[in-house]
């Protein structure tokens, strides 16, 4: 099994993952690709809680996608918008964990978060190895200039 570092370019359109390495894929196909191709480096995380240990193998795809999207958001959104986005994410999660899915606050937070991501488009190249996954310095800038690369 080849465990050499992998580089994958994740392409996003309006904050939705649309391609990997230039190949258009559905989100499901992208998760399968990342789990198989990048997952062959045998990442396993053990999450220790007070009552049990959870072994997470399929989490690599989600972690890579979410981290790449977060880096693209940081390159695309203003700092005040990012601050507000974090507050909304916390409110949204708080409502959900409290069992208030569909509450007015949850719906409003969800709509505001979705609208903040409409113009978040571009690409992030990730360097993935058996010890880490990191965005590479060279990536596709959402605005097409070299300011963030």
From TrEMBL:
<dbReference type="InterPro" id="IPR024074">
    <property type="entry name" value="AS_cat/multimer_dom_body"/>
</dbReference>
<protein>
    <submittedName>
        <fullName>Uncharacterized protein</fullName>
    </submittedName>
</protein>
<dbReference type="GO" id="GO:0004055">
    <property type="term" value="F:argininosuccinate synthase activity"/>
</dbReference>
